[in-house]
Amino acid sequence: MTVKRTNRSYASLARTGISALIFALASTTALRAEADDYRLGPQDKVRIKIFEWRATRDEIFEWKALNDVFVVGANGNLSLPFAGEVTAAGQTPTEISEQIGDRLMERMGLGRRPDASVEVVEFRPFFILGEITQPGAFPYRPDLTILQAVSLAGGLRREADRFMRLERERIQSRGEISLIGLERLTLLARRARLEAEINGAEKISFPEDLTGLGDDVVAMQSMTQERFIFESRQRAIQTQIQALDDLNNFLEAELVALEKQLGFLDTQIASIEKELANVTSLVARGIAPAPRQMELERALAGMRSQRLTAETSLLRARQEISRTELQKVQLRTSHANEVATSLRETEASLAATNRKADTALHLLHESELLAPVPSEQVKYTILRTDESGNPVVILANESTPVLPGDTIKVEVLVSMKQAATTNADTVSITSSVRR
After folding, report:
1. Engineered SS bond to 135: which of 129, 177, 278, 329, CB 3.0-4.6 Å?
2. DSSP at 419
3. Carries keyword Coiled coil (predicted)?
C-alpha cells in the first residue's frame, strides 16, 4: 500500500509541473498581430474563437462551427454560421467580437453572451504603381513604410540608362539595410536573454546597442518581448523544480515513518525472541506446553515478515528520492543545453546579419557615389480611404507608414544632378546598423 501511494503522489506532482511548463511556454507565443485599434476592411482575414461556460454541465463549450479563419467580404461584412452577416468594415477586432457575442445570444436564445475573440491573421494587401519594377498588390506587414514597400515591389523601374538602374539599387539597398537593422536589434535582444539564462542571472542585461536607442519602438518591443520570455521560462523551470522538491519532501517524511516502524518491529522481535528462548527452555524441561512454543515461533515469523516488507518500502522510497534528484539534474542540464544551442544559433544569425549589412552598405556606398539623384527626389503619393469611406490623397516620403488597403503611386522626376561624394543619409544608416 505504501508503494502505490508513493507512485500516485509522484505522478500527480509530476503532472502539475509539466502542465505548468506547457502553459508557460504556450503563453509566450500568444503575440498580437496588430494594435487593438486597427479597423478592418475587405480582404482582411480574421481568426474567430468562441467559447461558452455552461455552469449546468460544469464545462467550457466550444463553438466549433465558428472557430475558424474568415475573410471580410467586398461588402465589408463577415458571413458567419448562426450569427449571419456581421459588419466588419471600419470596426476594431474588439467591436466585432462584441457584435458576434450579442448576435449569438440573441439568435440562439442564450442566457448570457458567449466569449468571442477576433484576431487579425492576414491584413488586406496594399497596392503600388508607377515607376517601380513590379507594380501590383502585395501582402501587408505591420510597421511597413514607403521605403520598405518600394523594396518589396523590386525598387524603382529600370530605365534604359544606367543612372536609373543605380538609383533603383540605391533604393533597394536602403530598404534592405533598414530591414537588416530591425533584424539585428531582435537578435541582440535575444542574445542578451540567452546569456542571462545560461549565466543564471535574475534579470537581463541588455547591451548599449539597444538601451542607447532611447524610445526606439523596435528596440523597446524587442526588449519587452525577451523579458517576457525570460520570466516565463524561469517560472516554468522553477515550477518543475518545486514539484520535484515537494515530492522529495513527501518521500523524506515517508522514510522517517518507515524507519520508526522498523524500530518498533525490532523491539517487538527482540521481545518475542527473548520470550521464545524462555519458553523453549521450559518446554525442554517439561514445565511449559509445546503449543505455546509454536505460537511464539509463528508470531516471530510474522513480525520478521513485516520487517522485511518495511525494509523493502524503505529501499523503494530511497530509490524514488534518488530518481527525483536525477530528474532535477536532467531538467537543469536539458535547459542549459537548449539555451546553449539557441545561443550558438543566435550568434551565427547575428554574424550572418552583420555580413549582409556590410555587403548592403558597400553596395549603397557605390550607388551613392555613382548614381544621380532626382533634383526633387522621388515623389510618393498615397491614396487612402478614411473611416467615412472617402478617398484621401496623402503626400508621403520614404518613412511614411503604409496601411492595409493603401494605394501608393511612385513618380520619378526627369531632372537629374550628380550625387554628392559623401551622402549624409548613408552615414546615418551606417551608424544605425553598426551600433
Report:
1. 129
2. P
3. yes
Q: What's the whole-model pTM score?
A: 0.40
157-196 burial, b at 16+ Cβ within 10 Å, e below that, comes to: bbeeeebbbbbbbbbbbbbbbbebbebbbbbbbbbbbbbb
Q: Which of 264, 271, 200, 270 is nearest to 233 (CA)?
A: 200
**Cβ atoms of residues 296 and 275 within 8 Å:** yes
Handedness of CA 91, 95, 101, 102 (dihedral sign): negative
Predicted local confidence at residue 11, as pLDDT: 39
Question: Which residue do the cell numbers 496601411 mark?
Answer: 403
Q: How far apart are CA 432 and CA 174, in angstroms?
A: 12
At residue 326, what are phi and psi to the nearest 5 degrees? -65, -40
Measure Cα distances from 46 to 27, 101, 275 in Å: 20, 16, 85
Residue from 61, 117, 67 nearest 93 by CA? 117
What is the DSSP secondary-structure string of 349-399?
HHHHHHHHHHHHHHHHHHHHHH-EEETT--EEEEEEE-TTS-EEEEEE-TT
- pLDDT for the residue 16: 38
